[in-house]
Structures are given as C-alpha cells and as structure tokens.
Amino acid sequence: MRSLRRIIPQAAFLALCLFARGLHAQPPTNPPASPDSTPTPPSFRHDVMPIFFRANCNSGGCHGAAAGKDGFRLSLFGYDAAGDYFRLTQQMLGRRINVAAPEQSLLLLKAIGDVPHTGGTLFKKNSEHYRVLLEWIRRGAPDDEESVAEVTGIRVEPEKLLFRGTQQQKPLKVWATYSDGTTRDMTALALFFSNNKTTADISEQGVVTSGRRGATDVFARFSRFTVGVSVTVLPTDDSFQWPEDARAHNSLDEAVFQKLRSLRITPSPLADDGDFLRRVSLDLIGVPPTEAETRAFLESTDPAKRERLVDRLLERPEYADLWANRWSDWVKLLGDTFSGNATDTKNATGYHQWLVEQFQHNVPLDRFVKAQLTSRGSTISDPPSNFFTMIPAGKYDPKEMAQNVAQISMGIRIQCAECHNHPFDRWTQDDYYGFVSFFTGVQRKKGSEPREFYIYHDSALPPAKHQLDQRPMPPKFLGGAQPALQGKDPRFALADWITSPDNPLFAPSMANRIWAQFFGRGVVDPVDDLRITNPPSNPELFAELGRRLVALGFDQKKLIREIVTSRTYQLSSAVNASNRDDDRQFSHALVRRLPAVTALDTITAVTGVETTWKNLPGNYRAAQMVNPGVRNGSYFLACFGQSERTSTDAGSDNREVSLSQTLHLLNGDTVRDKIRQSTVLRDLFQTASSPEKALESLYLRALCRRPSPGEREVFTRVSQSPPVRADYERVWWALFNSTEFLFQH
Amino acid sequence: MKSVALPSRRLRHCWRFLSVLVLPLLALFDPPQTLGFNQYVVECLLPRGGRIGTQVEATFIGNYLENPREVVSNRGGIRALSFQTPEPHSERFMVPGPRPEALRATLEIAPDCPPGAHLLFLRTECFLSDPVLFFVGDMPVVKETETRTGENDTPQKAQAIPLNSTVHGQILEGGREVDRDCFTVEVRKGDRLSVDLEAVRLGTLHYKGENDCQLRVFGPDGHLLASSDDTALYVQDPFLSLEAPKDGRYVIEVSQHRGALFTQLAHYLLHVGSFPRPKAVYPLGGRPGELLPVQLLEDGKGTLPLKLRLPAEATPPSPITVFEYFPEDTRGRCPSALPMRISAHPNQLENEPNDTWQTAQAFEFPAALNGVIGSEGDVDVWRFHATKGEAIDIRVFARTLGTPLDPKIWIRPARAEAEEEKPLAAADDALLPERGIFSHTIPPKGLLDPAMTFMPKETGEYVLGIEDTRGLSGATFVYRIEVQPHRESVCLYPSRNKRPATYDWTTREAVLQIPRGGRWTTNISLGEGLGTQFGAETFRIEAVGLPPGVTMEAPLLHPAQGAKEVPVQFVAAPGAQPGVSFIQLVAHPVQAQHPVDSSCQRGFVFSNRRGGLGWLPVWIEDFPLAVVEASPFVLDLEQPKIGLTRAGELDLHVRIQRQPGWNAPLELKLDYLPTGVEQGPPVEVPAGQTEATIALRAAADAPLHPWKVCVIGTTLDGHSLYGTGCRLVSSALVNLPVTEPFVTLDFQRSSVRRGDSGEITAHLKHLKPFSGKARASLIGLPAGVQLLEPFPEISQTDTSCTFRIQATPEALLGQYKQIQAEIAVHEGGQWIRQQTGSGILRVDPARASASPQ
C-alpha cells in the first residue's frame, strides 16, 4: 500500500500543504513581461485567459456554462484553452476580436459596458485588464506557441494566519509556477473567497480581515488550482482558563479540546442524566426510553451507568433498523411494483433485510462496503448486488455509479470532473474517467423471473473514453496508480484500495459520517463533500476519527461507543460566553431537530399507538420501512423532510425546520390521533395513583424528565379537579409541540 | 344455446377498439382492474391438487360451463366421474365474467396417475376449456383450518399435522394483518424433515398477487432452524430439508414475502414429510432406459447416492420437455420433480482438475458432458477433435434444469497461445429459437443457458470451456453439455406473434375444438431451430394422432416465399365421436435429402406480473383437440375464379347454411391473411341472412404465391375479443393466388389551370391478358379537380389512355403527387379492381385575362 501513500497524501486537505512545499522555493523568476516594455505581445494563456478567470467570464454562471451565455461560450474556468482561442478569434471573424479596429472588438466593448452586456461592466477602460486585452488584440490576437508553459501549481503566502481581535488585516500573495520553471505573482489575477466570513473575510485583492473568534480557511484560486490558508482569530482578552473538570475521556476528546484550547473556547458542562438518556437513546436506536427505563436510569447511582446504557442500547435491534434506514437513504434503496428497472419490492426488501443484518451482526465497515462494491449474482438471492440497481436508478450508468461510490465511500464528489477538471478540488478528467472504468464492465441482465436481474462483470468490455479526445482510460485509482488487473473484475482491486486502512479518505470519511449522526454535523460538513475548499473544521479530529476506526478494525459499534461515551458528546447544549457562537468545534451540544423517522417513531413510542401505512399491511416503525414511509403516504414524514431516496447525498434527509412542521404538530392528525387513540394515556388516566404521578409519567415518557414545580403548578391551574383525560391529552399535546420534544439537546 | 342482448355494431366496434388498443395500455399501469373485464371458460380449479388413487370433490370456476362432458389431463390418469349443474359464483379472488359459474365435479385420480403438474381441460357440449393446472401427489391431504387471519399465525397456535402429509392452505387476503400459517409436526431426532411448498407454480393467481411464499422451520426449542425463500429449482417457491437435531415438535411457518401484495387469496400446497428433498441431482441426465447412478445433492441427509432407471424415450433437444425425476427412498417420494435430460449421447463425468487446456478432459461427440462449477474461479475445460466444415451443435443445460449456474461457454484451439486470444466462438444467454422455443416470447430461465452451432474452419483439436458468467460457484452448480453433429431442426407452433404473451392470450389459444360435421382452422408457423436455415425448402404438415372421423388439411409451407405461416384446418365428419385427443403436428421437408428434426409446441403462461408481464410459462407438445357438438351454421366459401392481383381488390362470397330455427347474427372475417393481403373490419351478417361478401386487398408488393384462405364465422353471444362463449366455425380452404396486375400505367406529368379543362395521359404496360374492356378512373385528384366522363376504357391492344379532367376556379393550387388509376377488370365472372401508377398533376392559377390595349 505504499502506492496509496504516494497516490493520495495523508488527507486531501493536507495535500495542499505538501503541494505547496513541493513548489519552487526560489524567488519568482521571469516575471511577466509588461506589454509596454517588451516587443513580446501578451500571451493568450498567461495574460488573457487569467483575465477571463478573474473577471468571472468563464465561470459556470456566465460564458463558462455548458451552453455558453448569450451565444458565446468559454470553457469552464479555462480548461480548454485551444477551444477558447478558436471561439474567440475565429468563430465569428472580425466581431469578437477586431484586429483592424481593436477598440471595436466586442470583447472589449462588452467588458467595459459600452454595449449592452448581460454580465454588466467588468472593468474600466483605464484598467490594467483592458490595457492587456487591447494590446493583445493590437498585436494581432496571436495564439501561443505549442511549447507555451503551463501552470503547474500555485502557492499562497503566508500559509497560516493568526489574528488577535477583530478587524485586523493581512494580505495574501499568490504565486503561480509554470512548467518551464518560472514563477509569477498572480495575486492580481487570482480569485479569493472565505469559508466563514464571520471569522475571516477576504477581499478581491486578497486581503484577509479578521472577524469573530474561531477558525476557518480562506482560499486563493488560479488556473485549475485552489489553495487554502487556515485562519485563526483569537480574542484579545487573555483571561481564558480551561475548566479543571473538563478532562478528556478519550483521544477524540483530546482532539476536540486541543482545538478548543487553541481558540480559547470553554466547553459547556456535562448534560444532566435526563438529557443524556434521551439524547443517546434517540441517537442510538431512534426511539425514546420507556418510563421504567427512564426512572431506573435517573435513580441509578452507578457511576458507570452511562457507559452501561450505551452498551445496552448498542445491542438493541432498533440500532440495526436505524442504521439500515440511514444506509437505505444513502444507497437510494427503493422498491416499486414494476420490474423493468430491477427494483421490484422483493429486491428492495431483500437488500434492506441484508442491511439490517449487517448492522445486527456489526459487520466491519470495510467488509460491509466491499461486499456491496464487489457484489454479483442475483438481485433477489444476492441482496448486496442491488447496490448496482438502486444507485443507478433506471438504466445502468457507470459514470453515475463511479460518482456515487466516491461520494458514499470516500466522501468526495468527482462529478464536476466529467466535463472539466474539478474547479474546487484536485480531480482531473483523467482521474474521473480512470475511476469510471472500474464500473464500465458491470453488466446487468434479466434472471430467472421478471423481478430478478443478474449483476456481473464482463472483462471483455472496453474502459471509459476520455470526453475530450476519446482515448480509452484504463481503470485507475483516483489520483493514483493503475492496478494490474489481467482480465479480472477490477471492482475487487478497487474495493481493496478504497477500504484499505492506508486510504486516507475512506476511514475518516466513514467515521465522519458516524460522528455527524451524533452531533448534527460532521467535522467535514456535508459529510460527503470533502474537498480542498471544504476542509475539516478540526483536521486533527478528522484524522483521529479515521485512525480510531482503523484501530478498531472498522468496528462501527466500537467507534460509536467511543463517540457517545466521549465527554464531547455528553456536553450540555447550554452555552457560555466563549462558545456561544461556535457551531463547528463541538464545544457544546448543538440543538438539532429530530430526523423525520425518529420524530414519528418517538411519538409512536410515547403514545403506544402504532403507525399504519398505506398499501402495506402490518405495523412498522418508520425506521423499519423498506421504502421510505413518505412513499407510503405519510404526510408527517414528507413534512419533516424524510429522504425520498432520489439522491445519494447524505443531506437528502432534510433536517431543516419549517412552519408546516409546526402547524402539522399543532393541528395535524398525527399528534391528534395518536393522543386520542393512546391506550397508554387511557391506562395512565385510569390507574395513576394521583394526578401528580400521572403528570410525572407523561413527562418521563415524553421528555425523560420530571415536570418542574412551575410546570406542576400550571397543570394544576389549568386542569379540572380532579383532572379528566382531556387534561392529560392537552399536556401531551403541549409537550409534543415543545422545542424540547422535537429537538435533540 | 342461450343468447344475450347484442349491443349495436358501433358499440361493439368501440369495445373492440377499447379491448385491442386501450386495455393493453391500461394494463401496463393497473392490470388488475382493467383486465378484470376479461372472461374465462375456466379461471380456477379448487382444490389445487389431490392425492393419487383418491377421488377429489373439485370445483371449476369460470364461464359457460353448462353441459359438461369430460375432464382430461395432458398426462392422463385423471377423469371426472360426475358433474353437478353449474351454479352462479361470485368469489372475490376470481375475475368475474358475464356468467361466473362454479361447476362441481368428482375427479378420480388413478393409482397409476403420474405425479406432479397436470394440465386439465374441461370439455362441455360445445367448448373445450382453456387449461388449468392441477397437482397430484402421494401423500394424504390435510386442509388448513384457519378461517380468519391470526388463528394459526404463531407457533403456539400452530395447526398440528401428521408427518408425510400435504396441506391445502391459503394465505388470507388483505386487511391490516399479515397472514402467517404455522403447522406443527412431531419428528424424531435424526429423522429427515423435508418441506416443499408449491405456491406460485400452482398458477392460481393470474393478476392480483405474486403468491411468493417463504418457509421457516423452528425447532422444539423455538429456535429458527432453517428458512427458504426463492430457490434455483422452482424460482419463487421454497423448499428445505434438514436432519432433526432432537425429538420434538417442529413448527413450519408459511408466509408471503414482506413486499408482496395481499390483495388476493393465495393458495398453496405444503408438503411435509421425511421424503428426500435434494437441491440438485448429478448428473443431469442419461441415456434412454439406462440404470443411471446419480447423486442427490444437499439433501437434509447430505449427498445421497442412488440408482435411477431412466425412461426408454429420449427428451427432445428443446428445454420445453424434460424428464421429471421424483427422487424417492424408503421414507417417501419427493413431491416436486427434479428436471433431467434423456438423450442418446453417452455421459462423460468431469474429473477435476480440468481448468486449463492442458488438463482438459477429452471426449468424442456425440456426448453429454457433465460437471459442476464447484469452487470460486472454477472453469471446466473439455477437449475434442473436430473436422473442418462439419458443424457441431452445442447445448448447455443448467438453469434450464433448475441449477443455479448461469453458464457461458467458449471454444478455442487446444494450444497454449490461444489462451490469450479471443475465442473462436462463445455463447452466453440464448435467443428463444436457439433454445427451441417459439410458441411465445416470455423468456424462461432456460434462456440463461447458451446454445450454439460451431463450424470449425480447420481440422484439429479444440477445447470447450464452461464457467459461470457471474463468477459464482457451488456444489449444486451442475451442468450438462450435449454435443452432437449438427442436425437441422424445425418447429411448428401456433402463431400468436401479434398478440401479447399474457395469461389471457396464451390460454385462449390453447385448444382446438371442431364441431361435428364442421371445420376448425388455426394458424401454424414454422420456426428454424438451432443453426438451421430453411433456404428454399418446402415443408408439408402432417397431423399425428387424429381421432377417427377427423382429418387435417394444410397448405405447403414455403418459407423462402414468405409463407412461414399457413392455415391448418381440421375437419370432423358428422359421425365423429365427441371427445378429446392429443395430437402432434410434424413438418416434413419436401425436397430435402438430409434429415430434419421436427417438433411442435404450444406454450402459455399462468401468471401476469404487475405491468402486464406474463411469466411462469408452461409448454405442451401435444395439442388438445376436441370434437364438440355440431355448430348451428356451416360456412361455404365460394372458390374465386381468379386470383387477387397486386394492388388489387377482390370480393369473396360466403354462403351461410343455417340450422333450422337458428337465425342469429354472426360475424365473418379471415383469421389467416396471406402476407401483404388485408381485409376490412369483420363483416356482420344480420340475423337470418345467408350470404355475405368479404373484400380483400393486396399490397403492391405482396408476394406472388398460391395462398389458401378460409373464412371464420363467429356467433356474437360470447366475448367479442377472446371468443369465449362464441361458436367458431371455419369454411373450407379455397385457393387465393396473389398475381401480377393485368396492366400498369405510367403517367406523364400533367398540369391544368384553374377554370380550365385538361388531360392526363398514361402509357400502358400489359402484364397479363384480359378479355373485354377494362374501366379506368383516377384517384388522388386534388380538391377542385374532377375526372370528366366518359371514363376511358382499356382494351388488350391499347398502348395509352387519356383521362379528361376539369379544374374549378377554386381548385387548390400546387403540385399533387400520387395520382393513381383504378382499373376494374371483369374476369371470370367477377370484377377485380386494381390500382396502378403514380402521376403528378400541377394545378396552376387561372390564365390572366387579356389586358385591354
């Protein structure tokens, strides 16, 4: 696996630093020639195209769009210089470029706004950009010679920035290195942006301005390269002291706390038992504890009761249901009634059951992913083979397959590189098509009955062809080596490479997916969009998560146990002055809305009224459904954003809050009917020894805590004496509509 | 015969349009409801099976079941001892027809009745029903006692049944509760417990459900011991076999898979006993009459070595007929068969290692090569000698015979360097004709088995390799490759290529019923078998097994002239005895010097998947033919005295001989139309009328061939689309040659001005003599241009003719192509109309009036 280390640096984000160090260390040589001081005309690639880049002419929203804009197309971010030159100089002779009357060139007239231009005025007539373009046209708008040097990389100075206090400013400088060994200061032509403007903003000229306390990255982009600079903003106040009791439980805490210390952020204290019990139950098994479980936990004096609780929950069958449900979202598991696309309900049911069994048996994640990547056989009798029918919904497409595999297993999105080198990451078209070729031999054919399809690999099929020049691209690991396959199914080599402990993307990415389930956001967020321009908020934590997953043998339960027994996970959601603004460094528990299935299953569990589903006999929790319940007519799940599994995006299960959710809880039939039909409530009403006891039961079931004196007082004040069932119904209705119920905290 | 009120003709044609065009489209989206209009003779038979040597009180549910006469099985051994009078029926699981009825009958299953699936046909006074599956077994029958969901859904509430019995059970429909059926049996430690479920194979649910059941067996301690869902042998039907780990009460649970629809009652036969229940047999065949040593693989007792006496007759090369092996030992007989092959080729069993050309096992063909792709990456390689130009047929049998192997084969020269080269020949999945399947388009699992004809280009040593396409392997991945010198083969089958292969169509066309003193005609096509090309060969059809008093007449098949399909007519003498026979059709080459294997087949499906996909195909190679009571009318089609010319029209004249007192209306049409010949909508003959005319039209490029045709008459008191409940009668075959036209016209370009008259002239080319004068007129003239009388008349000696035309001042301007002439020739006492020519006429503006000077 030495090759892996060579192929992909320690992690994609760290590659930036390594890359920068690999560049020329000597001062810039051969600075760009000024048009005025040399007879050499401006270079199309070195001088003209960077202006298009800087002025956003060749961005996706302008002429860089696939269809161009207003009849004129440039390649996106200039990946096709020859094509751009042709379209500019020869596609409409004498119009876009007018050598006879350079000032009348549409290129210039549009750019300075002398003629109507959808993109508006881009620069002024007296600007440097205008002067370079005009000079280039005056010199006959020449193309570069074939031997023209290409940009081989950029570096930014300084590599890190540290600010004390707000509104401090520091400039960046961007150096581009060319294939002829020259280096040029391209600060004036680079693009700059920030990931978090409230912490660090950056101007068009590359000047960074500090904001509020925190850490973020700013980026410089030139040509096809993007480089980040980490920015830390500290308060000017030196009174920070780390709380004595905030001791790390494990290495994950250490990584978190180290970052917090560096930012002078004080973590919140531990959550109380009730909050922890509810939080960990809903996170681990998707249903709240019973009243008896809650009472037992709250009353226990066992110092290790939290760890013991975690161990018990991890063995619950609902744990497997919940994780199967999540993976069903990510692999777009759907069953329908028509067999044409190999996604019959029977196939989907088998695949879903297989997923459940994987988590029941705690199959290591590397084996779990490998089993699907290398699956073959019948979509009915070999369930993981549905990986190749569910993800490419409809007709099988190796490109779609490759993109989704990269996204699901390594948390990276390579789809941009299908048409051009990735604008925000390191992936080139060569990388893309080499990766696609791992899947071009996958075939599916009809099996023994209409619902059944066979998945297999045909080694006789050719690899993918490069989009630009149609040359065959043999299977090649992303950004790395070309494996020796000798007619074998390349998916096996790919699966070994992806799931290797040496792969710096797989383990951290998988661990980050798991982490995000317990914190509401990943260290990289979204968890499936790791790129140079979206680095981890805490690189050490990201790396440590991967290291721990590898060290634990890709054992998900063990990693989860480490996560939920960490101090970080157990922190309260209450904030202090130093961490009030923090939403990236896990200094306190983020208040997060329950996922749709957990919200519904929680209401179901609390009321004891099972959910019935349209067109489906039997009673299932939402997390147990093969198809998402939203497809079985559940308005609740639709309203709360359950994934319809049309995308592999980890964020397809929408966790946003909307007014319709509030209204549905207030007035909809879900809460209303379940409360009315609740036999739990009926039994409680009939058997509770006192109204106080009944009220306490309602609170313990719904919120895992006892009512406060104030809440007891309100209940006594507004209920009849003695209370009737409707009074208790109203209590639950109020609790179900509380933020405390619907949110993890 | 009862009659029903007839809708108007227009309404019935609307219904026909809906039926033919709209319903199949709707069926793609919601088949259960839209196809609910379909009508059946026999929709269902309950119970779904019976025990050998017993009598079964059975109920046929369907339409038009009055006056039942007999029940026959395609395999014999079952008959009806008595019938009751049909009663109205309205059970929900049946698709209701216009007259849903339940007919109770006492069926006798003879002691020597073959076990397994039988196709039963019910003959009534006037009809032979479509087939219905019925299953015969050895074990005593127990009925499931559950009447409401939940009564036997848990191990605690399981219904006790004796070991070695067959349960007639049902998964109850609908509702919020999922029906599970639990049964319990006492088993002693070390005994074999085998469970075999027949559900989808019963073919009971045609539309509304899948009947896709699964099995689970729990031990005396309540732990799950074994489960089975889909199987390689029976696809959706499960089975399992285990050795009991301890004495006690074992629970067997039957349920449908979680994603199944529960909208219809689903019947099943659950066999529970100590019988052998292997997953596969090795080898998969032997020679006729041979005492074959076999191994039963993955039985509950492990691998069982047995000796099997094979029948004396070989099975045909196509997979539609197999030898059904019911393994048995001292503890019983397996209720479901393992399909096997019987062929004259000597068996060769593989000896591992045989994965390379160096270790390839040598054989001489004809031979049957038997092996197992038993381990990861296993490839079996066989070596043989072949002579240049001598073709070899290679057929693989694996999925065809229910093993899990998905084989692909390749042939290479037997030398080292060839290993890296592209194979000389390779085959994976087969096409339907390559597997000898012609009678419908439902791909059976056997299509996963390759078949090819290999033509060596050099004399020498070759290797034949076989492996699993998916790279899978296992102990039951058994295969058999039959290799023989190439033999030409053809197959006769009912033509239904224009209709969907669904439960409706295939069952509708499954029978032949000939009225005494009448005729019945069905269209038969000829298919080319593996590696076979008809060339210019002509074939004659022979019917084998016709009952006394029944004869068959069929035109010759001329595939090279486009006549791959002919009308085959059966004629029953007035004295022919009503009854059912099973016949075969054989195609004999008329000129060939070499032998040609001929077979016939008829396939149909018993289940339509949602979306209209038919599956669960069943084939028969003997066509059921029934002689039924005389029809109330006879058709007499007058022999035309002349042929139908290309691009011409001809009227056929039909006389209807009505039985005294029968004056109902009927409909006439040609079921068989020669290539390139069309007819109009069916001709409705009003009540009491005894004559009718049917117009035929030939395309300009219709093949010139001496066709034969007949007219089919249908009463209108049944189903207009499927013919259910209708009496169908055929006329005798008459000659209808398609010939060259008499004359062709070559138009000159012409023009006419608005308001002016003009002429269109055409040169004549005489192709065929005719007597007298032919009338000529023009068609395709633009609006505002008229042909002026007198129309030209053409004689045999004319070389041109001129049409006079007149354009109105409002005639449409422009250039009009495809001006044609219609020539009416009076020949042989009747008019023949033909169209010819393709002229161009330009309509110009009116001439400008002279301007005043």
Report helical residue fraction of chain B: under 10%
Secondary structure: number of strands of chain B = 68
Secondary-structure-derived class of chain B: mainly beta
The shape of chain B, in one word, is globular
Q: Which stretches of chain B are poorly predicted, pLDDT < 50 over at least 5 residues? A: 1-39
Task: List segments of chain A where confidence is low: pLDDT < 50 over at least 5 consecutive residues.
Answer: 1-38
Question: Mean pLDDT across all residues of chain B, rounded?
Answer: 88
Quaternary status = heterodimer
Shape of chain A: globular
Strand content of chain A: 5-15%
* Major interchain interface with per-chain residue totals: A-B, 32 and 32 residues
Mean pLDDT of chain A: 89
Q: What structural class do the secondary elements of chain A suggest? A: alpha+beta
Put simply, the count of helices of chain B is: 3
Largest sheet of chain A: 4 strands, mixed
Major beta sheet summary of chain B: 9 strands, mixed
Number of strands of chain A: 17
Helical fraction of chain A equals 25-40%
Q: How many whole angstroms does the radius of gyration of chain B measure?
A: 33 Å
Straight-line N-to-C gap of chain A: 43 Å
C-alpha-based Rg of chain A, rounded:
30 Å
Walkthrough of the structure:
The complex is a heterodimer of chains A (745) and B (853). Chain A has 745 residues and is α+β, with helices and mostly antiparallel strands. Chain A contains 30 helices and 17 strands. In chain A, helix 11 packs across helix 12 and helix 18 crosses helix 19. Chain A is globular and about 100 Å long. Chain B is mostly beta strands and 853 residues long. Chain B contains three helices and 68 strands. In chain B, strands 49, 51, 53, 55, 61, 63, 65, 67 and 68 form a nine-stranded mixed β-sheet that branches. In chain B, strands 1, 3, 5, 6 and 7 form a five-stranded antiparallel β-sheet that branches. A five-stranded mixed β-sheet of chain B has the order 10-12-19-14-17, with no helix packed on it. In chain B, strand 25 and strand 26 form a beta hairpin. The longest helix of chain B has 21 residues. The N terminus of chain B is likely disordered.
